[in-house]
Amino acid sequence: MRRWRAGNPRAARALSLAVTALALVVVVAALLLPNKREQFELAQFTRIPVEALLGAAVLIALPRRPRLAVAALGGVALGVLTVLNLTDVEFNQYLGRSFNVILDWQLLGDAQSYLADALGPTTALLAAVGAALLVAAVVAVMALATVRVGTFLARNRARSTRGLLLVSALWMTCATLNVQVSGVPVAAEHTVTMLKYHEQALRSTIRDEQAFARTAQADAFGNTPGSQLVPALRGKDMLFTFIESYGRSAVEDPIMAPGVDRTLDTSTQALARAGFHAKSGWLTSATYGGGSWLGHSTFMSGLWVDNQNRYRTVTAGQHLTLTDAFRKTGAWDTVGVMPGVQKGWPEAKWYGLDKVYNAFQMGYRGPKFSWSTMPDQYALQSFQRLEHGRKRDKPLMGFVILTSSHQPWAPIPRMVGWDQLGDGSVFKGIEAAGTKPADIITDPTRSRQEYGKSIQYSVTALTQWLERYGNDNTVLVFLGDHQPISRVSGNHASRDVPCAVVAKDPKVLDRISGWGWTDGLRPAHNAPVWRMSAFRDRFLTAYGSVPHPSTG
Fold first, then answer.
1. Three-state SS for 341?
2. Helix residue ranges, H only, 276-404
C-alpha cells in the first residue's frame, strides 16, 4: 500500500479524501438517524446536526492522543446509539413502540424463536449471528469513522476552525429563522433529543415499577367472597377465548375487511339459526403487534399491563382475574387450553386454572403451521373431547388461546370435517400445500391478504364449534389480544380489538344491554371503545358481583 501511494500520489490523495468524506457522511448520518421507518426520507439527512459542530470543536482543540481517545469513545457511543435507533425502528414496526433498554432484552430471544418457527432454525441462527456481527460492525465502523474525521480536522486547525465557524453561523441562522426543507428543520438537535428520550424512558420505567406495584395491590373485588361473584352466571358453561392478532384493522381495512366482515356476518346468521345471539364492541389493547400475554393479563386482571415488568408484578401478586373469580366461587371447574405454551407456565396459578392443556397435551400429531403448534379447529375439538364434552358435577369455565392467526400468516389451516380431525394428521397435506412464510413475510399486500384469511379461519373455527357443541347454558366471550404489526395494520393504526359476548339465554345479553354494544359479532365503527382493563369490573358488575375492595 505504501509503495502504491508513493507511485500514485494523486490517486492516493483522492482515495484518502474519498474515505474521509465517507467517514464524515457516516458520522453525520448516524447523528441524524430516525428511529421510525416512516421518517426515513431525504430531508431528514440534509440537516445540520449541532452535535457534529460541538464534537468538531472538541476534536480540533485536543492534542493528538487525547483526541484519538475521545474520538474513539465518542464513536463507540454513537455506534451504540445507532444500534438503539435501528432497534427502535424494528420495535416500532412490530410492537408500535420503542425498545426499552431495561425490559425488552428477553423479547430478543422470543424473536429468534419466532424466526425458527417461521423460517427454520438454521435461518434463525444465521439471523442471530448476523445481528450480533452487525452490531459489532456498526460500533467499530462508527469509532473508526469518528477517529478519521478527527484526524482530518486536526491536520489544519486554522482551516478547520474557519470552516466550523462558518457552518456554526449557518446552523444558528437556520435555527433562528426556522428554515425547513419538506417540513423538516435544517438546524437539528436530533441526537441530544434521542439521548433525552432514552434517559426519560429509563426514569419512567423505574418510577412505573414502583407505582404499579402499589396499584396492583388495590382491587375493587379483592375481598369479595366467592358466593358474591358472578351469581347471574351460575350454571353456565363460561368460555373466554382470545383470537391471536384479531384487531380493528381486520374489520375495517379495505383489503382485509371484505372477507372478515363477510365471515362475521355469516357466522352471526349461522349462530342465530342455532339459537345464539351476540353483542360486540371495541376494547383498546395494552399491547400492539405482539406481546399477546400483556393483552391477556390486562383483560383478565383489570390492570393496564403494557410491559414485561408490569406483567411480572401482577402475575406474582394476588390481584383477582376473571378466571380466578369463577374458581373462587367453587361452582366451576376451571380449565386452560394453551396450544401456544411449549414450556412451563407458572402463570396458571395466578389465572386460577385447575388444569392447563399445553401444546403437547392435546394429542396432536399433525404439522405445525409456522409458529402455531396446531390449527384452531383441532385445539377447540380437543377442548370438547377432553373437557367440555365430559359429564361433570360442575359447569366449566374455559380459557382458550387460539393461535392460527399468529404472524407470519403462512401457511394457514383450512377447515375440515369435525369428524375427520382425528389426531391432526389430516392437516399434513394442507400444511405442505400452503403458502410459505418466506413468500409473504416482506410483502405488505400479501401479508394483509393472508392475515385476513387467517382471521376468517379462526372466527369460523370458533363459531362452528359453538354451533356444533354449544347448548342453552353456553356463554362465550371472544376477542382479539392486539392489532397485527404495522406492516399489516398501518403505521398509525389504533390499538382497538373487537370483543363479543355470545349466548343462547337472552338474560345473559340483557345484563349488558346498557353497554351500548352492537348486535351481532361485528361491532359498528362507532360502537363504544373502552380500555381493555375496564372490561373485568364491568363484566363482574353486570353479572351481579358485589365489590369488596382490598388495599393489599
1. coil
2. 292-301, 308-315, 322-329, 347-351, 376-383
> Within the chain, how many helices (H) and strands (E) appear?
21, 13
For 221, residues 6+ apart whose C-beta sits below 8 A from its C-beta are 229, 320, 325, 537, 540, 545, 547, 548, 549
**Does residue 288 share a domain with residue 174?**
no
Q: Which residue segment(s) compose the domain that 105 sits in?
A: 2-204
- In angstroms, the first-to-last Cα distance of the chain is 73
**CATH number for 424:** 3.40.720.10
Residue 451: φ, ψ to 5°: -60, -45
Per-residue pLDDT of the chain (552 residues; tens, 9 = 90+): 677 676 767 777 888 889 999 999 999 999 999 888 878 888 888 899 999 999 999 999 999 999 999 999 999 999 999 998 888 888 887 777 788 777 777 777 777 776 776 677 887 788 888 888 999 999 999 999 999 999 999 999 999 999 999 999 999 999 999 999 888 899 988 888 888 888 888 888 778 777 888 888 899 999 999 999 999 999 999 999 999 999 999 999 999 999 999 999 999 999 999 999 999 999 999 999 988 999 999 999 999 999 888 999 999 999 999 999 999 999 999 999 999 999 889 999 999 999 999 999 999 999 999 899 999 999 999 999 999 999 999 999 999 999 999 999 999 999 999 999 999 999 999 999 999 988 898 888 999 999 999 999 999 999 999 999 999 999 999 999 999 998 899 878 999 999 999 999 999 999 999 999 999 999 999 999 999 999 999 999 999 999 999 976
CA distance 436 to 441: 9
Report residue 98: phi and psi, to 5°. Answer: -80, 165
Q: How many domains does the chain have?
A: 2
Residue after which a domain boundary falls, among 182, 204, 226: 204
